[in-house]
Amino acid sequence: MDKNQLLQLVKESVDKGEISKSEVNSLFQKDGNHASRIINILYAIGGIVILAGVIALIAQNWESLPSFARILTTLGMSIALYLAASLVVKSKEVLSQVLAAVSFALLPVGIGVSMYEGGSLIDRPVDFVVISGISTIVSVISYFTLKKLPVTIIFNTVFITALTYSFVSLIMENVGYTEFNVFTYLTMAIGISYIILGRYLSNERLRQLLVSIGTLGLLIAGITLSGLWDVLYIFILFAVFLLSSYWKKRSMLVFGSIFLISYLFEITSKYFAGSVGWPIALILLGILTIAIAIVTFRVSRKYINE
Predict the structure, then answer these.
(1) What string of DSSP letters covers 16-33?
(2) What pLDDT does residue 306 have?
(3) Greater confidence, 270 or 86?
(4) How far apart are CA 47 and CA 133, in angstroms?
(5) For the chain, what are the domain ranges?
(6) How far apart are CA 259 and CA 278, in angstroms?
(7) CA distances from 107 to 56, 111, 113, 226, 261 (A)
């Protein structure tokens, strides 16, 4: 078989769907991809080292550093890294994301240090509203200036969440209301918003991350409530199981199964502990735990695995 015949055979196989173009390309890109992965890992390590260095510098020399140096080390470093990320965003996307991530991590610290040096003790909800609010504005603007990099979506989510908690804390302080359940309900609401947002993101990894965090937040917050929620929680679990199959999200299925088992243990210990039926209930719980594990595995294989 000569070269032309071989190429024609490959083309026909691609046209028939027997192999994909990506599979053909991967035969010639393995070495390049391997080198690229190594470079990306080194970028990430470099970013972590920079962040660790700044933290170590502040921790070891905080008392001896003048105000200007403290602000320059934190907020100044954040601004410098942000500018560097903006300069390389077109040519080196991964490096830009690493630099932006370190910049965003230092941003609230830098704002807080600047406020502290200006006379604020950073011990009031309004201070955290200011820090998270400025950080949110910067990250939202960065979503466009940094070409909608995934890292900007992550920090947008983090800063907006922090701003939400800080703002609710400020309102509760002003009205003199200190009921802890407010933050539990707020966590459930944020968890639902994460799930909805994650569902419609185009980036698969971000989708999976947000859906997983949202599901975990919703289930953890919900299981801490009592009273009527002892009944309503089972509907939350049912919704999580239903969406896990419909959206093909294994993390939702696994978290749902774990919290279903936790819910069963909590309910039986709350209402049956000390009764004659408690040992029998424990035996049944053990059987149910095994059954839930088996069902979870089978559902995952049948409805979620591609």
Answers:
(1) HTSS-HHHHHHHHHHHHH
(2) 45
(3) 86
(4) 25
(5) 30-178, 181-306
(6) 20
(7) 17, 6, 10, 39, 41
